[in-house]
Amino acid sequence: MLQHLKEKRDVGFFTSIAGLMNSCSVLDLDAFERTQKAEGLGVGSEGTAGEKNMHDADFTCALFRFLQLLCEGHNLEFQNYLRTQAGNTTTVNVVISTVDYLLRLQESVMDFYWHYSSKEVIDQPGKDNFCRAITVAKQVFNTLTEFIQGPCSLNQQALAHSRLWDAVGGFLFLFAHMQDKLSKNSSQLDLLKELLELQQEMIIMMLSMLEGNVMNGTIGKQMVDTLVESASNVEMILRFFDMFLKLKELTSSSSFQEIDSNNSGWITPKDFQKAMEQQKIYNPDEIAFLMSCCEPNIDDLIDYREFTERFHNPAKDIGFNVAVLLTNLSEHMPNDPRLHRFLETASSVLNYFEPFLGRIEIMGGSKRIERVYFEIKESTIDQWEKPQIKESKRAFFYSIVTEGGDKEKLEAFVNFCEDAIFEMQHASSISNEDTEEPPAKAEPYTFLGAEESRPPGPMEPLKQGFWLLRDAIGALLSVLRPSYLKRQFQALRRKSLGELLMGLFRFSFFGFFY
């Protein structure tokens, strides 16, 4: 396709793409409010308020997905061609057009946030609109990531000098304040999940912006500038991660388990607050926020396992990428005092992920040594400390010291890796058979005043009678099947006279008494 575009010098393809981007809709708060008022008066006949905004969301996602696939696999030539079409009479910068749409979308989402900021919860039409916009925004960030991965340094520079940072700053505000709002009501959790996924995609895009860059470079400085301008929002986001990451430590502690002595998974709000105060890992403001996120059941009990899973797992997934971003940024900008202050604020999050942060150095596309980060799973760390793995490590280090040539050392390293992987997988399979997964939720709760099973409803006897009648008819039909009758007749022919008389006696006896 690239070769065809170059040969034909097809300007129309790129002008059409830019025109389609410009025509892609974003959220329209005025239209949303008009439609809701019309429906409130009973004159809305064209559908719900949630259907009025971003009616072309599917097409918009498909358009940006198409552009993403053009650059799939670090297609450097196509990445550059989307930015500028050398030899054409007119060039269209598709990369910048993508940023322009992202900024329009972010500003429209911000309008909806302010509309709902004074309301306790976001209603269903509002959630539908937010989710639609977030879905499109996730795809746009995926497309931008593919534009620059590899890295494509010229596209990175184009984005660095665009209004991308304005969009990033706006989204940081939305992430901080909407997470604060949505975390406090269980009816908002589906929207919170979508928002956190968008946050994950944006962080991945920011990591891709740093890929292959030099120390104290322009992009690193601009990223620090953006974080400093949004300092209060970034600190709020880091505070959320810190609070939610500590939940697992809290609920798995021995003192907390003593409160739930029967291991039911239920706890009173008073005991939950007392446990947080005793652990001394939360300040009073954080305790108050976490208590506002809890929703006790009808008997004023909290399912603390579900509560922990609800917030801890997303914080762990996204927090890891935040830790990678800050660590990577600190290596690109080692002498920036503003970044050092951020690292101090994020010290608790960084310390949490430090044991799980793996590092390797590879030769990048620019022929420079680059450091790549990856996640080390907790189960892998446990396996790495097993006695058999330690013995393999000792044997490997001994062979490295004793073997002289590079070829022998490389061979010893490969052998060690193969042996270690096999031993860890084998040990993991054994441990998985021996251990049971801890429950993710509390045991089914029996409401106070209720018996072990709830009383049957008035229709229950009729239902049971219907099922019994159905089973009886089914059994009768199965007995009357020709194949069944033929099989029973053959069985009777094989029986002796005594067996037939005994069978007849038993049939008569049970038929009379039962």
Automatic annotation (TrEMBL):
Keywords: Calcium, Receptor. GO terms for molecular function: calcium ion binding. One of its GO terms (biological process) is calcium ion transport. It holds the Pfam family RIH_assoc. The keyword Calcium applies. Residues 247-282 form the EF-hand domain. The keyword Calcium applies. InterPro entries: EF-hand-dom_pair (IPR011992), EF_Hand_1_Ca_BS (IPR018247), EF_hand_dom (IPR002048), RIH_assoc-dom (IPR013662), Ryanodine_IP3_receptor (IPR015925). PANTHER family: B30.2/SPRY DOMAIN-CONTAINING PROTEIN, B30.2_SPRY DOMAIN-CONTAINING PROTEIN. This is Ryanodine receptor, putative.
